[in-house]
Amino acid sequence: MPSRRTVLAGTAAAAALTSVPLLSGRALAVAPAYRWRTVVMGGTGFVTGVLFHPSVRGLAYARTDIGGAYRWDERRERWVPLTDHIGWDDWNLLGVEAMAVDPQHPERLYLALGTYAQPWAGNGAVLRSEDRGNTWQRTDLAVKLGANEDGRGCGERLLVDPRDSDTLWLGTRHDGLLKSTDRGASWGAAEFPADPSGTGQGVTFLVAAGRAVYAGWGDSDGTADSPNLYRTSDGTTWEPVPGRPTGAAARVPVRAAYDRHTRELYVTYADAPGPNGQADGSVHRLRTTDGGWTEVTPVKPGGTDTFGYGGVAVDARRPGSVVVSTNNRWAAVDTLYRTTDGGRSWTSLKDTAVLDVSETPYLKWGEDEPKFGWWIQAVALDPYDSRHLVYGTGATLYGTRDLRHWAPQIRGLEETSVRQLISPPAGKAHLISGNGDIGVMYHESLTASPARGMAANPVFGTATGLAQAAARPSYVVRAGWGDHGNGAYSEDGGRTWAPFPAQPAIAKDAPGPIAANADGSVLLWSFVHWDGTPYAARRSADNGATWSEVATFPKGATPVADPVDPSVFYAFDTATGTLHASTDGGLTFAARAGGLSSGDREFQLAVAPGRSGDLWLSLKWNGLYRSIDGGATFTKVSSCWASYTLGFGRAAKGASYPAVYLVGSTEAITAVYRSDDEARTWVRINDDRHQWGWTGAAVTGDPRIHGRVYLATNGRGVQYGEPA
């Protein structure tokens, strides 16, 4: 996430930070060896591209919009993450805009990285590998890429030139076409006739057709005098392809695939780049030998059945055999169409599909049966097996070996953006997670997708709050964006749920964080609109049957319950840099310590388990603060200079205080740390191979197992580590 340094206010803060002895020390030089693994959920994110290597059986790569790239391990039948080494400062590089392989050199792999092209995001980069992604060399670009922006399912935008393995092409969104003649070590602008100053998608794909290269262009308005497909035959001069289709259904060329047997190029089109916003589309075939075009659209969108076309793959073994996908087809659900006669006739593979999601039950989305999928823009055919077909959706990657039976081919690939974590002190599950897009999950096992899928009754899209009553761990509450309610409670530790009997009207449009007091008798629900607008919090003392406004609670703050005293709640008001507390069960709040860092929404207030009034406050660039008097005063913890999130776990043998886990900086780098002595000293417990970009949402230790820690990532799911 974009970071900005904030400065602690002077005199008031100094007066507040007085009563607790300073905790000093530095991180220990020798850290314990940790083993890191990914909690299995089963994909849960948008797979934007899949690429089979054309000359190596069983070798394939996948890219995601925010969660990095993967290599398929055929022997183990699982995906291997390739970009977990990307660190905190480079979080913007976990989005993979495009990837490329060299047909002549199977060990070579190239990735174009950059999640956002916005002014606040960093520039993109190209990674190049000579060993299939085990090790990398990096070249920083002078332009921005947008792997998590509109058009992220287009591509591939990166290509090894078919005439020369040392030459690579990279299509950008707003800076035209780039070219490298030294295998990606350096890049410069290539002469390209399209105007890169537009606000659209720029280059949408690059594809080799024999010795020629074709480039799609997404800024066209679809008129006859605005080309959207270009070609070079000599690697120097680009020209518009004549006779191209026009109109709204052919406005944006999304993807293309070349049939080397028939020397024909198949191009999918839509009226918008997608994955959202498409209402029209088409499929066309270009005969590259003489420039003849033929429309081969399987089904034309119309009426209430609106959609575009997205993925396209040709069968390397069978001339004229092609698969294309619809995209953004919400009414009838997206499908794959397959032809074996060059597009003269098509069959919908969805109509005969048998879906088996037993390995990833969340894909039922709270219903009886799974759907074929939405947001299908990544489609790939195994060049060595005509019946091995995979397609990516907004949530998983499906595969088949017989074109009828489908199951997620997703092992090892985890892309969840995780928001909240709870590790219960008792019960079957050691972990409950609150997530973007897939709501809340109850993890009976860390090595299998939750058997109950997403928490239902109601089902949430994105979770905004998750809390457990400290003295009554069987009681858990959650909040989030849902179509059938925005809050729910559980009486069995998060295994099953029931909606609150009632909810405040504002909950539908602005669900936010929620807290339960120590014994679960009082709920506090804060409300924040998706655009950041805060609203007054509400309180319930009857399990959500009625709610009353808490006028003195700081709007938009996150409520935190004292783990021992049911009458006490806390909240940090970042607008004023003030800690507020309630001693009457959340009826009223009063200011305590003031003069703390203000104005930054990225902070965290936590309470040490089993201790009343023992507060820890992470204030991003201003570091870590602690109060042992319920927030009346705070002392800065001198052992770290930047703190983003922290949590607690089981104490070390012989220690009386819980282990403290921190994502922050004790010296030069941002990393994951553990302290067994109340933050006097720290040991780094991750390593340079395990960094996962931005990890500032949540971290918590396991209250039952010393050393085990759960870490929320923004695109790599939940990572958990244990001493090796």
From TrEMBL:
One MF term in the entry's GO annotations: hydrolase activity, acting on glycosyl bonds
GO annotation, biological process: polysaccharide catabolic process; xyloglucan metabolic process
Residue numbers spanned by region Disordered: 222-249
Xref: Gene3D superfamilies: YVTN repeat-like/Quinoprotein amine dehydrogenase
Signal peptide: none
Keyword Protein biosynthesis: no
Keyword Hydrolase: yes
Ranges of biased composition (kind: Polar residues): 223-236
Keyword annotations from UniProtKB, A to Z: Carbohydrate metabolism, Glycosidase, Hydrolase, Polysaccharide degradation, Signal
Family per similarity comment: Belongs to the glycosyl hydrolase 74 family.
Name listed for the protein in its UniProt record: 1,4-beta-glucanase
Originating species: Streptomyces chartreusis
